Protein 1
Amino acid sequence: MTKEIPNISESEWEVMNVLWEKAPQTASDVISTLQEQTDWKPKTVRTLLDRLVHKKVIGVNKDKRVYTFFPLYSQDECQRAEAHSFVKRIYGGALKSMLVQFVQDDSLSEEEIRELRSILNEKPDKK
């Protein structure tokens, strides 16, 4: 049984990307990195960190005088949960419908289609 990963907002994804790149990090470290990429104020980043802690997506080490934050889920786990949620919400859970739309809308290049075929051919049959 896989654990349920809470939904993460777009802004929270930005924070998570910083923590996946290097963890643990202090709030100041995360703020510094995000201020290079966004126009967010430190209070905004602290609010996002607090939300992620409350959602139990990141943990906080309170052993030291300075709190450090670290992800409780891998990037892969969160991406899979988000992809599953997207397919469920937008395509009623039918992955095939999404793929058909991408292929028919010419959203995929020939190289991407070849790569997708290769992945599908290598996938073991479900029993």
Protein 2
Amino acid sequence: MSRVLGVVDSIPPGRVMTYGGVAAQLGSRAARAVGQVMARYGSDVAWWRVIRAGGHPPIGHEAQALAHYHAENTPLVTTKTDAAYRVDYAAARWSPPA
């Protein structure tokens, strides 16, 4: 748990990682386990910086996350046909230094 939260805590403002990216950083493929840790203990870290693989914010927290993304100038993608948004993962992706 603390290792997951440590990785999340290291993500800089305006940047993101996927659940799978956090798991990979820890030498694992357990993206769902990262999601479970974030659901239970993630409120004390920048939870909005961990996104789903398609660039979408955590389910059920889209409005709260959007406020954080705007405040941090996180690159977003929106469509004219849909009120939804997603993070521009190609522009906002963060990889910790080796």
